[in-house]
Amino acid sequence: MFNSYLVSRAYYDGGLEFPVIQPTDSVPGRLVAFSKAISSKDHDQWVHFFEYDYQFERVWRSPRRYLPILKRFQGVILPDFSLYRDMPLCMQTWNIYRSRAIGTWLQDNGVDVIVNMRFGDERTFPLCCDGAPHGCVIAVGTNGAIDDEADRSFMRDDIDWIVGELAPTTIVVYGSAPEDIFGRYSKAGIRIVAFGSDASIAHKGGK
Predict the structure, then answer these.
(1) Cα–Cα distance between 175 and 197 in angstroms, integer?
(2) What CATH number should be reported for the domain holding residue 32?
(3) What is the pLDDT of residues 11-36, one digit of tens each?
(4) Strand spans (E) along the chain
(5) Is 56 inside a domain boundary?
(6) pTM value?
């Protein structure tokens, strides 16, 4: 369960000692979901995990098995383990930790990674920036997270906290990047790179 070898060479940050992710300036040109990457022969893209957890829990259970597959691609946006606001804090914290542990191990093995910033409730705000790199490229997912005004308001608070703490140069967004959430950061000089979700692309008849 602990997969201690993932963090055998890690540095730690914050009171809960999250593994530190090194910064990257790489920006994806294209993305592919992990569940599709397994069989894909098109490696000129980045792997993402913005899909149901059951699709990629196996990466946590058997990281060594999937390392050769992930290394074929240009890079990896770190796993998006679910954080729900009604989850106990210990579970939210565990899922942040798991993403960072996989990330530091992938970096140790020569994989270019972008940290994925996922929040649960307000208690996770100070936690999930621990170990995340400053002044570089980060990623967030909005798909399914801004469907109503309450969620949009929470996302605004999320992004505001991220920008204040990490001062990113670029935010890679999986899902829509509405002006009322991301516009002021774009105007402030932060590059916003948005990728439509697989579901939205399919709905539009894309590939």
Answers:
(1) 5
(2) 3.20.20
(3) 999 999 999 999 999 999 999 999 99
(4) 12-13, 18-19, 31-33, 46-48, 75-77, 113-116, 137-141, 170-174, 191-195
(5) yes
(6) 0.94
pLDDT in tens, 130-181: 999 999 999 999 998 899 998 899 999 999 999 999 999 999 999 999 999 9
Q: In which domain, by residue range, is 52 found?
A: 19-203
Tell me whether residue 11 is in a domain.
Answer: no
DSSP letter at 71? T
In this prediction, residue 126 carries a pLDDT of: 85
Paired strand residues for 191: 170
Nearest partner of 111 among 77, 136, 148, judged by Cα: 77
The number of residues making up the chain comes to: 207
Residue 64 lies in a domain: yes
Decide if 42 is inside a domain.
yes
What token pair was written down for 142? 């909005």
Domain count, the chain: 1
pLDDT at 203 over 60: no
Q: Is 46 exposed, middle or buried (0-12, 13-18, 19+ CB in 10 A)?
A: buried
